[in-house]
């Protein structure tokens, strides 16, 4: 009969992981976009900015954030990227502790990594593993996105939380799980580049008058949408090729069933572009509108 022989980490390494977890825990938040479920996030800078995953906030423009001290705050979604699965939030708070940033472009396969999040709603759970791969994933339209793959144990509730190196520095944002045992994180250098640009972006104003309608897209069932009843002269909608009679089905990859959904979706991507799906003359068409100043 085979005997399991436990392998113990050196005492100093074990203590160092515990110290890292204690040091960064004050920077980690819980993000809740609806009554059931949620994810993690972390402080990005001292002026109340927080980063999490786009799939954690979903279609919402405002979510609830709970800081490590237990205080709850309303957070505005000020920028989002469907491609990178990143969202930038803003709360009314200052002087929050942030996690030191490492250059993830220097990360190597085999390095120790640490994840902290809230799996299944359990706050501040710490797991560790090693980097097993660094590469790119296809994200559509012929584009790819960088990723870090590791064997860190993640579960629902970890999304949006930090991935740290052995010095307690941020090297990634935990995003998804493949095959049950391979975790994927967005590299910190990618998140930094996106956040620096996204912080300067403002929600887009199309310049249209809308009317709620129910439409049946080709091959689909009836669904709520928005009929364009008017287009302002010189507006972004006019310059982007939208016409009276077009029906808005989705903006930025998000269905727009009413004006509230549209407001939530009107944020440009990291390239300053807004993807719009419309129904025109009984046919679905996809447009890409370049926001002002880009």
CATH fold name of the largest domain: Thrombin, subunit H
The first-to-last residue Cα distance is 68 Å
Strand tally is 18
The largest sheet has its strands arranged as: 1-2-3-6-5-4
Order of helices and strands: HEEEHEEEEEEEEEHEEHEEHEE
Amount of helix? 10-25%
Broad CATH class of the largest domain: Mainly Beta
The CATH superfamily of the largest domain bears the name Trypsin-like serine proteases
Number of helices, counting only DSSP H or I runs of 4 residues or more: 5
Radius of gyration from CA coordinates? 21 Å
Shape: elongated
Mean pLDDT over the full residue set: 85
Low-confidence stretches: none
Count of spatially separate domains? 3
| Largest pleated sheet | 6 strands, antiparallel, barrel
Explain what you see.
- The protein is built from 5 helices and 18 strands.
- The N and C termini lie far apart (68 Å).
- A 6-stranded antiparallel barrel has the order 1-2-3-6-5-4. A 6-stranded antiparallel beta barrel has the order 7-8-9-12-11-10. Strands 13, 14, 15, 16, 17 and 18 form a 6-stranded antiparallel β-sheet that branches.
- The chain has helices spanning 11-24, 54-57, 188-198, 236-239, 259-265; strands at residues 28-32, 39-43, 49-52, 62-66, 72-81, 86-90, 112-117, 125-140, 143-150, 162-164, 170-178, 182-187, 208-216, 222-231, 247-251, 254-255, 273-280, 283-290.
- Helices cover 14% and strands 42% of the residues.
- It folds into 3 domains: 28-90, Trypsin-like serine proteases (Thrombin, subunit H), CATH 2.40.10.10; 104-198, Thrombin, subunit H (Beta Barrel), CATH 2.40.10.10; 208-290, PDZ domain (Pdz3 Domain, Roll).
């Amino acid at each position: 009969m085979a005997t399991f022989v436990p392998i113990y980490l050196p005492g100093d390494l074990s203590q160092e992981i515990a110290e890292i977890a204690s040091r960064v825990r004050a920077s980690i938040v819980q993000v809740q976009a609806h009554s059931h479920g949620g994810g993690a996030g972390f402080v990005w800078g001292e002026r109340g900015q927080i980063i999490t995953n786009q799939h954690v906030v979903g279609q919402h423009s405002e979510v609830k954030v709970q800081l490590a001290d237990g205080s709850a705050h309303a957070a505005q979604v000020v920028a989002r990227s469907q491609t990178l699965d990143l969202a930038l939030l803003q709360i009314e708070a200052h002087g929050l502790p942030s996690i030191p940033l490492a250059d993830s472009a220097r990360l190597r396969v085999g390095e120790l990594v640490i994840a902290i999040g809230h799996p299944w709603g359990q706050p501040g759970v710490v797991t560790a593993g090693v980097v097993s791969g660094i590469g790119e994933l296809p994200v559509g339209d012929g584009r790819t996105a960088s990723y870090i793959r590791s064997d860190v144990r993640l579960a629902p509730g970890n999304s949006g939380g930090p991935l740290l190196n052995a010095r307690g520095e941020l090297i990634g944002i935990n995003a998804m799980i493949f095959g049950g045992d391979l975790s994927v994180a967005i590299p910190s250098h990618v998140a930094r580049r996106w956040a620096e640009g996204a912080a300067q972006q403002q929600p887009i104003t199309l310049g249209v008058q809308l009317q709620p309608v129910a439409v049946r897209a080709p091959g689909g069932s009836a669904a709520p949408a928005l009929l364009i009843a008017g287009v302002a002269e010189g507006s972004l909608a006019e310059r982007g090729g939208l016409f009276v009679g077009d029906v808005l089905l989705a903006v930025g990859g998000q269905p727009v069933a009413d004006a509230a959904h549209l407001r939530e979706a009107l944020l440009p991507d990291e390239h300053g572009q807004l993807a719009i799906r419309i129904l025109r003359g009984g046919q679905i068409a996809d447009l890409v509108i370049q926001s002002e100043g880009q």
